[in-house]
Every structure is written in C-alpha cells, then in structure tokens.
Design goal:
Length: about 725
C-alpha cells in the first residue's frame, strides 16, 4: 500500500474514531474471516516460503527466526539451529501439517502483520489470534508483548506473554463507524520471539429469522417476511434466494431485494432464504452478509369434518364464530391454516332444562336442608340432569316468627333489691329458669335468666337476660393527726371492687365527690361511703386516733417580786423523748435550748418556754415577770468598730440615777489593761472604747470590762462582764 493510501486511511481514522469495548460482545453471529489467511497454510515441509502479506519490517528466514528482525512460517520449532532455551511448539491449527507464523521482533516494536481490509460497513468487529511465547523461562530475554492496531488506533495489548510454551487465544472487539470503508490491520510485537496462528477478523452479523415452515392453500399466493428487518442494518441491502434441490444449491430470486417476498403461485418443495448486509457492495462481499434460516413451503389441504355436538336448552354452541342453538343439521365453512377453508357438518342435539317451585313453612330457628332459618327466604338450588343440564328448584321459605326476642325490665339492681323481668307477650307455655311460669318473673339476685315459650303453631322460642347486682367493696386507709389538737388527719379509699364505675365518695353523710381522698380531719369517728353509677352504695366506719399530749411543765420559779440581777435555775420537761426546748424572756440565759438553764432577770416582761417533739408537735408555757430595777445600768454584749456609724464603740448606758463613773477599764483575756476611762460624767466621750490599744486595732474576740459607778444617795456599785468585739 502506498504512503498516500496510509495517509488517507489515517485521516479517515481520525475523522471516524474507532470505539473500543471493555469485553467481547456480539449480539448476533460472527462472519467468516475478512483477512483470508487465518491458518497460514499447510504443507509437508517444516518451513514454507515467505508470505507477501506479512510486514516488510521483518525479513524472511527459511531455517527459523533465530535472529531479531526475522520471521518464518513453520509447523514446529523443533528445527536445527533452534536456540536451546526456546520451547518446542507445534502448529495450533486443526489442519494437518499446518503452519504458524514465528517471528523475532527484537527490542523495538515491529509490525509482524500489515494488511489492508475492506469493512462490511458500520458495526461491531472481532480481531483474534492465538499467541505463544517461543522463549522458555530459561532464556535470559523471554519477554514479548503483542498489540492489535486498526490504522493507528490500538484496540488490544496482550501484555507480557507467559514463557511456558502454551498457546493462548487473544481477542479484541471494537466498533467501526459509518463512512470508514478501508483500514489497515497491523499486528505489532516487541521483545523475544513469538508464534501466531488462527488470525481472524470477523464481522458481527445480525441473526436473520424466518419461520421454518410456511403453509399455503392450493392456488393462493403467500408472503415470506423477515422479523425485525427495520432494526438489523443501518443501510440495509437484501437478496432472497431459492433452492430447487433441497438446499444443495441456491440461486438469487430476480428483483427480490426487499425484506418481504410474495410468491404467486407457491410450489411445495421449493425452499427460500434471505441474505442481508449494510450495503449492496457488502451484500456481495465475502463474510459481510448475514444468512437466514431456510423456509420450506407446505401446501395445506382443505378438510371436511362431521360433528354431533349437544347442548342444554338456552345454551349456545359455536363452530368457529357461528352460534348454534336450534337442534338439527348445520353446515359451516371455516378458514383453516394459511387461509384454507374447511367444511364442518354438525348435527346439534338440545337437551331439556327443568324449573320447580315449592313452599316450605318453618318455625323460627328450625333447620331445613342443613340450615337454621330465622327469616323469610327464597332459596334456589341448582342440580344437574342425567344429560348434564343445569336445572333449578326454588323453595319459598316462610318463617312464622318475629326476627328477635328480648326480655325487658331493669337489668341492674343494688344488692338486696328486686326487679321484674318481662318476656314477649302473646305466647304460650312460659317457663323461666327460676321456676316462674308467667310472662313475668321477679328476681332479687344477679345472674342470667332464661325463658322459653311457644306460639300458636307450637314453634318454640327462647330469650335470656343478665341481671347485674351491684355492691361496691372498698378499703379505707387512715392517717391520724400528727400533733395534739391538730386537724391534719387524712382518709383515703385506695381501691373499689364491684358495682359499676364511675364511683362517688363522701364522708359522714356529706356531699358526694369524685375524689377518693379526704384531708384536714381531726381525731374521731368517721363513716366512709362509696356509691357506684347505678346508685348502689356501701359504708365502712373508721376511727382517727388522737396523738399523745406533750404535757409540758417547768420549775424553778421564785415566789414574789424579782429584782434586776436576780438569778433563777429553771428546768422544763415533757412526756415525749428527745423534745427540743427554746427559752425566751427579758433577761440572760446560760443556755436557750437546754432543758435546764440559769436565768438572770433584767427587766419586767413576758417569759416563755417552747417545746418541739421529734414529730414536729409544739407546746408552750409562758408567764409575765415583774422585775424591780435597783440600778439602771445598760451594758451591750458586742460592738463592731468598722466605721459604719452603728455600734462603733463600746460604752455603758446609764439610767437617770447615775451620778458619775468613777472608773471604767477594759482588759484582754489574760488580764492585760487596754483602756481606762474615768472619772467622767455619764455619756462622756472618754468612756467610749473603739476596740484599739494605743491607736492599733485589736483582733476580734471577747474582752473584759470593770467599772465603779456612783448612784444617787452616795451609793457606789461595781460592775464587770465581757463584751464581744466583731470586725
């Protein structure tokens, strides 16, 4: 092929890119080989002469391709001069003494096959070859790779062929687009020596399907049609062929180039088939046309048939599309296979059908034909005569009774009450389950009551009703008041059984309520009552106990008037263990929360002791003290010299009978003298102590004071104590 041809093919390839497929796919059947030299020939000589279709890039060698850049056509590598590390490989074809291509490409890629091909048209193609690595794994250089090219497009790469002397099939599937009539197929190799056999380029042809047999009527034309013809080729070309010798030889049918063929007249024994391709040129090219299966023509003979159908009156028999319902002889013409008419002679028999009517009178609930009846009914039954015809019998069933029966009366009563039950009136022979024999019965207990009776025709009936006797049962839980005189007792009804919900609750005949709890109760007797929805009630008595009295008492009081500064030793007691006490009054206590305390009276006022039990109950005793003031002197117990204007100084408070302060001294706990004020008049600034010594603030704590006070009438009193300095 000239370089101009190569350039033209390359341009066509670039204009019409070849589509590669990930796997081998052919939806139809593969054509014959489009290259025409798949087996490389056969012969008795171990090596045959070179072939002109092989690439000129390799030089022919008649003894074997022992050198890079050479090739041979041989049927075995077991030849003189074979490199010792080469595998012994035989031809892989099915023909006897066949040849295969043995080539030694060398380090550079070399085209072993370079062949122009004319395509059958657009579609799918398969390029395949059997390959073998002629070098064994003992050769130093044993790697060889083979690639398939369509023009300049690589469609397959084998990768390194295994150096084991085994043939392997390698295949590429690709799509050729429309408008690409020619291409060059190249097999390119690189590396060590390799063998190739069974090289094929095949077109994926669609499957053409015709019916295997077509029946025709004598003298009537028939048409053969190819299934799905419009989807098989993009630019289809068709040619029908016929065979007169059972398929041994075939000739074209003149002018039969459509996917359908009308034969007039058809002749039994002649066979037909159709060829299809992408174009008229491809239709005549080798391996580019798809061939259908063979169609055989079979002449259909008309039939004459005799039948004796039988039907039941009212039914219809059909011969083909013709309805028959009159008895007698009928002749009908029917189209047969391929449109051939057949004649059917039918003698029709019509069997009679019967209908019967009966009246049946029943009692309410009486059984008839295996069914219990309670309402008037028309019952139609179908049966089959001896001739197989469906006939009817109808029963007019009359049930002499009302549809339903009910016992009336109050069906829910309170325990011990009575109610009257009434059965339907106007009947006979009443019999109640409690022994009553009239239409009514009086009952005083709950349960199910049944009455049976009959009508004037003797039909028995029965009715029942259930009477519910309500009596609510319940329990009461109680919590007594916690402290003497308290009204925090509680009553609660935790559950109710029997009767009919919802329930109502009340206490001591009070108002009914929906809640089941009563609070704020004092000790005493109570009656808890529950009433259900039917008005039935029950009562349970219950008693809330009163708690034990605290019995608080005290002792240690002196008779007569107290004078300020007098000291009493007081004691309190109560009936409860672990009772807590709290003393309060116009004086000083050595302990305000102890059962016993030392009390220094200061002024008149209210004095009391308050007791609290572990359960939180309290009691109190109090009295009014009259205390005569002998010397009116007031001394604070604490002060806070922080400059906030409140309690910044410790100073005595004096009554009106104080004349002057002779001495006023402050000491620390160890007797250290801290402050001296006096003599001075009451209220003098020099009697104020600011909590410091020599101008230095002293730490918080208890400090001692001592003073000499002159009262009216020349009486001098000394006073001392302790004061708490706070910061």
């Amino acid at each position: 092929m000239s370089s101009l041809s190569h350039k033209l093919l390359l341009a066509l390839c670039l204009l019409h890119p070849i589509g590669l497929l990930a796997q081998t796919v052919c939806g139809g059947t593969l054509s014959g080989d489009l290259l025409g030299f798949q087996s490389f020939g056969a012969g008795q000589e171990p090596v045959q002469p070179g072939a002109p279709f092989l690439s000129p890039a390799l030089s022919y060698q008649s003894t074997g391709p022992w050198l890079p850049g050479t090739y041979s056509l041989m049927n075995t590598t077991a030849l003189p001069g074979r490199p010792p590390c080469w595998s012994i490989v035989q031809d892989n074809g099915n023909e006897g003494e066949g040849y295969f291509l043995a080539a030694y490409a060398g380090a550079d890629s070399v085209a072993a096959i370079e062949q122009g091909v004319e395509w059958c048209g657009e579609g799918r193609y398969t390029l395949s070859a059997d390959l073998v690595n002629l070098s064994s794994d003992t050769c130093v250089e044993n790697e060889v790779t083979v690639s398939f090219f369509i023009d300049s497009t690589a469609v397959y790469n084998s990768g390194p062929l295994p150096a084991n002397g085994d043939w392997e099939e390698h295949q590429a599937t690709f799509d050729i687009p429309a408008g690409l009539p020619w291409s060059t197929v190249r097999i390119v190799a690189a590396g060590a020596a390799f063998g190739m056999d069974n090289l094929q380029l095949q077109y994926c042809l669609p499957i053409l399907t015709l019916p295997d047999t077509v029946r025709f009527c004598n003298g009537q034309e028939t048409t053969l049609a190819l299934n799905g013809a419009d989807t098989l080729f993009s630019n289809p070309a068709w040619q029908w062929q016929q065979s007169f010798d059972g398929g041994s030889t075939w000739v074209d049918v003149d002018g039969a180039t459509a996917p359908t063929l009308t034969i007039d007249p058809p002749i039994e024994g002649i066979q037909y088939r159709i060829l299809g391709a992408n174009s008229p040129v491809a239709l005549s090219g080798a391996g580019c046309a798809s061939l259908s299966n063979t169609v055989s023509l079979l002449e259909q003979q008309p039939l004459e048939v005799y039948q004796t159908p039988a039907i039941c009156a009212g039914d219809t028999a059909y011969i083909g599309q013709t309805p028959l319902y009159e008895p007698g002889n009928h002749s009908i013409s029917l189209p047969g296979e391929s449109g051939c008419d057949s004649l059917v002679h039918a003698l029709l028999f019509v069997h009679p059908v019967y209908e019967q009517w009966f009246t049946q009178r029943l009692c309410f609930g009486e059984a008839f034909l295996g069914t219990v009846w309670t309402t008037d009914t028309l019952l139609t039954l179908q049966y089959e005569t001896t001739e197989g015809c469906d006939s009817l019998v109808t029963y007019d069933i009359e049930v002499a009774a009302p549809d339903t029966f009910a016992i009336t009366g109050t069906l829910q009563i309170c325990a011990g009450a009575a109610t009257t039950l009434s059965a339907p009136g106007g009947y006979n022979d009443y019999a109640w389950s409690n022994g009553a024999t009239t239409a009514t019965a009086t009952v005083t207990a709950g349960g199910t009551y049944t009455v049976s009776f009959s009508d004037s025709q003797g039909c028995p009936y029965e009715a029942s009703a259930t009477v519910i006797s309500s009596l609510p049962l319940f329990d009461v839980s109680a919590i007594s008041p916690g402290c003497p005189g308290g009204q925090d007792g509680q009553l609660r009804i935790p559950w109710v059984e029997g009767g009919t919900p919802p329930y109502a609750y009340r206490l001591n005949g009070g108002d009914w309520q929906s809640g089941n709890q009563f609070e704020g109760l004092a000790p005493g007797d109570y009656a808890a009552e529950v009433q259900d929805a039917a008005g039935c009630s029950a009562e349970v008595p219950i008693y809330l106990e009163a708690p034990q009295e605290i019995s608080l008492s005290w002792s240690g009081w002196a008779d007569g008037l107290l004078t300020a500064g007098d000291t009493l030793f007081l004691n309190a007691s109560a009936a409860y263990a672990n009772t807590q006490f709290e003393w309060s009054g116009p004086g000083r206590f050595s302990c305000t929360s102890c059962p016993s305390t030392r009390f220094t009276a200061l002024t008149s006022g209210r004095f009391r002791v308050h007791a609290t039990t572990p359960e939180g109950c309290t009691a109190m005793l109090d009295t009014t003290l009259e205390v005569a003031s002998r010397y009116r002197l007031y001394l604070p117990t604490a002060f806070s010299p922080n400059g906030d204007g409140h309690n910044d100084y410790f100073e005595p408070g004096f009554g009106s009978n104080v004349v002057r302060v002779l001495r006023w001294d402050i000491y620390d706990r160890w007797g250290g003298h801290l402050f001296e004020g006096g003599p001075a008049l009451p209220g003098a600034a020099q009697l104020r102590w600011d909590g410091s010594r020599n101008g230095a603030p002293l730490p918080p704590g208890l400090y001692l004071y001592h003073g000499q006070i002159e009262f009216e009438h020349g009486q001098v009193r000394e006073t001392s104590g302790e004061v708490l300095l706070l910061r």
